[in-house]
């Protein structure tokens, strides 16, 4: 692998100026693949985001875009295939086996690496979800190829190789990574980093089946059960339409309640900046930013957050960013669409009250009529 670091603003991928001698047998590797992740029978939306990116790469390379669906026989696999076509796949590879009912590293790695060894894709993309990260790492090490994790930009270089760009040095630099000596070229992308493509009602394409060649005896991991969603109480920040977040400017752990109150009034999720997690004031799955969640809500309200680059990269996909900060020179005002220079501790309750009044069922009916 080779790394080319450069400062922002940066030229498009492919202009890094490094000369690459690509071995001849790389020509055997063709087409772009996207792993279609099934999460308890539902396709994880990051798979659609990756199909959108994969489509662009495949069109540039003039090759096909394939989805890869691994799962147990049943309705879910059929739906996943249909959705993969609707989001742009030309063909779908499937490995359908009862052993793939719940995610376990060994059978999923076996299924994917056998598929890759047989059909030789040049690019393989996976979502940087818990499952995707686990699978991508073991697939890459089994295949002895390069993997670029948490990419923020994917492009095709002038010689046809994948230019996978990701933040480095604490987010202050972006580097573009090429897998020069191995195939396939693998990359993961976090949910919400890439935009959701349009869904089309496309007729089904080609489905290629592959057999799973591993037995239960060879798998050391056993699934004993799952915590219900109410037990795990997971934040769904990445796909929330409205997010309200608080930072160190809130001053004390108890002031986070002001953020939660506003979030409740708006039917929103709440989040925070990294120091709030480091102080133990908020759970880690609520952190927004480079080392937390990437969000793309319609509305993002940030209270007492300075807008450091590591926070910014996680929120700049929001349609509307409203920043509440006491300092008129806070960096967040450089990228917020609407800035309110004031004390968040005093302003948040007033905003919550105003929204509660406006969004009360009585007023909602009046507004609708
Ligand atoms: C490798 C690495 C990864 C990182 N990943 C992340 C990440 O994922 N997410 C993240 O958020 N950070 C991340 N950080 C940390 C990041 O650099 C910043 O330190 C952090 O975002 C700052 O958090 P903050 O804005 O809450 O606090 P501060 O920077 O301290 O800002 C507090 C803000 O509140 C304002 N304020 C103070 N009092 C009030 C008041 N009463 N009312 C209104 N405003 C007020 C201040 O003017 C200030 O702008 C990372 C850093 C590194 C090095």
Provide keyphrases for this structure:
2 domains; 10 helices; 369 residues; seven-stranded parallel sheet; Rossmann fold; five-stranded parallel sheet; alpha/beta; disordered N terminus; binds flavin-adenine dinucleotide
Instruction: Give me the CATH superfamily of the largest domain.
Output: HUPs
* Fraction of residues in β-strands: 15-25%
Strand order of the largest sheet: 8-12-7-2-5-6-13
Radius of gyration: 22 Å
Number of domains: 2
CATH class of the largest domain, named Alpha Beta
Order of SSEs: EEEEHEHEHEHEEEEEEHEHEHEHEEHH
The description of the largest β-sheet is: 7 strands, parallel
What would you call the structural class?
alpha/beta
CATH fold group of the largest domain: Rossmann fold
- How does CATH name the architecture of the largest domain? 3-Layer(aba) Sandwich
Contiguous uncertain segments of 5+ residues: 1-15
What this model shows, in words?
- The protein is of the alpha/beta class.
- It folds into two domains: 2-218, HUPs (Rossmann fold, 3-Layer(aba) Sandwich), CATH 3.40.50.620; 234-368, TPP-binding domain (Rossmann fold, 3-Layer(aba) Sandwich).
- It is 29% helix and 23% strand.
- The protein has ten helices and 18 strands.
- It has helices spanning 45-61, 75-86, 105-119, 130-143, 229-232, 256-266, 274-278, 309-315, 344-358, 361-368, and strands at residues 2-6, 32-36, 38-39, 42-43, 65-71, 91-96, 123-127, 147-148, 153-156, 162-168, 173-178, 185-189, 206-210, 242-246, 269-272, 299-303, 320-325, 338-341.
- The strands form four sheets. Strands 8-12-7-2-5-6-13 form a seven-stranded parallel β-sheet, sandwiched between helices.
- The radius of gyration is 22 Å and the shape is globular.
- Bound molecules: flavin-adenine dinucleotide.
């Amino acid at each position: 692998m080779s790394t080319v670091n450069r400062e922002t603003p940066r030229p498009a991928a492919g202009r890094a100026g490094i000369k690459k001698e690509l071995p001849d047998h790389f020509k055997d590797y063709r087409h772009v693949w996207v792993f279609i992740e099934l999460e308890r029978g539902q396709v994880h939306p990051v798979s659609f985001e990756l199909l959108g990116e994969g489509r662009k790469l495949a069109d540039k390379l003039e090759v096909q875009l394939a989805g890869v669906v691994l799962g147990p026989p049943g309705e879910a696999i059929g739906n996943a295939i249909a959705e993969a076509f609707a989001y742009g796949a030309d063909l779908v590879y499937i490995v359908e086996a009862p052993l793939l009912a719940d995610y376990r590293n060994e059978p999923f790695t076996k299924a994917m690496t056998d598929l890759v060894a047989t059909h030789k894709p040049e690019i393989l993309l996976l979502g940087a979800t818990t499952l995707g990260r686990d699978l991508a790492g073991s697939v890459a090490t089994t295949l002895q190829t390069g993997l670029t994790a948490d990419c923020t930009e994917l492009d095709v270089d002038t010689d046809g190789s994948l230019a996978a760009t990701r933040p480095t040095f604490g987010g202050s630099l972006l580097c573009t990574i090429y897998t020069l000596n191995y195939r396939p070229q693998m990359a993961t992308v976090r949910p919400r980093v890439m935009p959701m493509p349009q869904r089309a009602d496309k007729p089904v394409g080609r489905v290629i089946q592959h057999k799973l060649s591993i037995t239960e005896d060879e798998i050391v991991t056993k699934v004993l059960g799952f915590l219900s969603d109410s037990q795990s109480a997971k934040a769904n920040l990445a796909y929330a339409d409205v997010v309200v977040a608080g930072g160190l400017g809130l001053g004390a752990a108890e002031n986070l309640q002001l953020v939660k109150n506003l979030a409740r009034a708006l039917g929103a999720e709440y989040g925070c900046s990294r120091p709030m997690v480091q102080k133990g004031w908020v759970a880690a799955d609520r952190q927004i930013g480079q080392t937390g969640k990437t969000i793309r809500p319609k509305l993002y309200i940030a209270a007492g957050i300075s807008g450091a680059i590591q926070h910014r990269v996680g929120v700049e996909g929001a349609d509307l960013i409203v920043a509440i900060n006491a300092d008129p020179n806070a960096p967040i005002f450089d990228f917020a669409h609407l800035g309110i220079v004031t004390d968040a501790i005093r302003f948040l309750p007033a905003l919550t009250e105003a929204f509660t009044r406006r969004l009360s069922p009585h007023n909602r009916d009046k507004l609708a009529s």
